[in-house]
């Protein structure tokens, strides 16, 4: 089963990372889910694929009552991001799902009805989760054409979707990046192949560099914290990416 | 047998019946034209040929209705499969025990209720299909009587008697074939229900 770890806490305000299932079969890519709560309600980022619903749900139950999750946030439309949607709606049919307006007619193939979805405009959106104010930040073409990240200014945490993802070997598979130089070797191939636009990458790096971020939390791999956040942004800004690069 | 596979085979059977009914309609139209050439002697045959054309239209309509019911069946079966898959995942979640089991239990119960409801709907649809098949079998029995009447009326066809007899025989063969296919359809439906 996955493990739920509180990675940020200030009063009732928490970020809970749901990650690292030792029983996960190798044919399923590993994913990280983050539960952001003000103590009364919560938002779950990239809730994952239907194959891992059981382990995500059970891990959340250990740390939080899933009945209090009011919204899901899908950074983009991929199956490892949101194909568990119908199961989440089986649990709570009233759940709302934030995702790019581009995907509001695609993702319902995984489940949900018109009322389930809150389409995010291209420029992003400020949203509230209980008393928390979160900023949905555009990250189009990184890698999906309708792609968003999530910034919690009060916690100084940034959910970065596929940016920062790394396919880590067992010995580096901790929840946090411990050795940036070794870690980044396992991120390079993924970013070269998945990030389609140098211009989008440049804009993202410029935007994110102005934000105060203590932790950069990707959907795959380990969390960057402290100085590693800036190291990562610098590394990514230098990385050659773009269509046609394999 | 896999329910969707069974439905696909039933659909194939329906298509072949619709095709055969189309052939009767063409043959009957041809028969009306030939009967006109045969003149006053073939008036009876002409009337029977018109009846045959009506029969083929009725069969085609019935098959269209059957296809509609089959489509509903496919939708329901696909829905059931989807719900069963969800139920399996929810039950797996419950198997983790503890809080997960308690919290997921209402969703499991709702999902199971959905599956039960869909199964009831599928059973009622199957019943509707069987009723419709019985109706089509009766129509076919009527069609055979008309085809045999055509055989009798062909004897009054004067110079065209041979051609009209051939037409009557062809139509009777086609209807026999439809009767057989409808029987096979009934059998497939019974298997699908079991």
Brief sketch in words of this structure:
The complex is a heterodimer of chains A (246) and B (194). Chain A is an alpha/beta fold.
Keyphrases for this structure?
heterodimer; A: 246 residues; alpha/beta; seven-stranded mixed beta sheet; six-stranded mixed beta sheet; 25% helix; B: 194 residues; mainly alpha; 92% helix; 0% strand; rod-shaped
Major β-sheet of chain B, in short? none
Spans where pLDDT lies below 50 across 5 or more residues of chain B: none
Quaternary structure: heterodimer
Individual helix count of chain B? 4
Distance N terminus to C terminus of chain B?
9 Å
Beta strand % of chain A: 25-35%
Summarize the main sheet of chain A. 7 strands, mixed
Class of secondary structure makeup of chain B: mainly alpha
Order of helices and strands of chain A: EEEEHEHHEEEEEEHHEEH
- What sequence of helices (H) and strands (E) makes up the elements of chain B? HHHH
What characteristic shape of chain B results from the CA principal axes?
rod-shaped
**Estimated radius of gyration of chain B:** 25 Å
Shape estimate of chain A:
globular
Approximate helicity band of chain B? over 70%
Mean of pLDDT of chain A: 95
Helix content of chain A: 10-25%
Give the largest interface pair and sizes: A-B, 16 and 16 residues
Q: What is the CA-CA span between the terminal residues of chain A?
A: 34 Å
Note poorly predicted spans of chain A.
none
Strand percentage of chain B, roughly? under 5%
């Amino acid at each position: 089963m996955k493990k739920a770890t509180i990675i940020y806490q200030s009063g009732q305000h928490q970020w809970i990372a749901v990650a690292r299932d030792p029983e996960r079969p190798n044919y399923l890519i590993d994913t990280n889910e983050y539960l952001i709560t003000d103590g009364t309600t919560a938002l779950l980022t990239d809730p994952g694929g239907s194959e891992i619903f059981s382990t995500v749900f059970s891990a959340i139950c250990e740390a939080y009552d899933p009945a209090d999750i009011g919204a899901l946030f899908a950074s983009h439309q991929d199956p490892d991001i949101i194909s568990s949607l119908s199961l989440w709606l089986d649990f709570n049919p009233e759940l709302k799902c934030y995702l790019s307006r581009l995907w509001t007619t695609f993702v319902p193939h995984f489940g949900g009805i018109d009322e389930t979805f809150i389409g995010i405009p291209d420029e992003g959106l400020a949203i509230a989760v209980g008393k928390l104010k979160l900023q949905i930040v555009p990250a189009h073409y990184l890698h999906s054409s309708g792609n968003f990240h999530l910034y919690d200014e009060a916690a100084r945490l940034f959910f970065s979707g596929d940016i920062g993802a790394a396919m880590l070997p067992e010995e580096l598979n901790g929840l946090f990046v411990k050795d940036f130089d070794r870690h980044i070797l396992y991120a390079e191939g993924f970013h070269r192949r998945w990030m389609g636009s140098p211009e989008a990458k440049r804009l993202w790096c410029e935007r994110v560099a102005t934000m105060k971020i203590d932790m950069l939390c990707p959907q795959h791999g380990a969390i960057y914290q402290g100085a590693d956040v800036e190291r990562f942004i610098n590394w990514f800004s230098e990385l050659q990416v773009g269509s046609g690069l394999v | 047998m896999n329910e969707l596979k069974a439905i696909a085979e039933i659909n194939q059977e329906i298509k072949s019946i619709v095709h055969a009914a189309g052939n009767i309609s063409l043959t009957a139209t041809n028969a009306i034209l030939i009967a006109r050439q045969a003149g006053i002697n073939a008036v009876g045959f002409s009337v029977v040929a018109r009846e045959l054309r009506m029969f083929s239209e009725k069969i085609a309509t019935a098959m269209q209705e059957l296809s509609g019911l089959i489509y509903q069946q496919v939708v329901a079966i696909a829905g059931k499969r989807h719900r069963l898959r969800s139920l399996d995942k929810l039950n797996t979640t419950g198997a983790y025990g503890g809080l997960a089991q308690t919290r997921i239990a209402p969703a499991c119960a709702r999902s199971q209720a959905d599956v039960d409801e869909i199964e009831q709907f599928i059973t009622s649809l199957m019943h509707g299909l069987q009723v419709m098949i019985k109706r089509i079998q009766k129509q076919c029995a009527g069609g055979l009587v008309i085809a045999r009447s055509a055989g009798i009326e062909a004897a009054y066809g004067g110079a065209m008697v041979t051609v009209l007899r051939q037409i009557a025989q062809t139509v009777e063969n086609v209807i026999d074939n439809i009767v057989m296919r409808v029987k096979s359809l009934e059998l497939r439906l019974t298997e699908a229900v079991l």
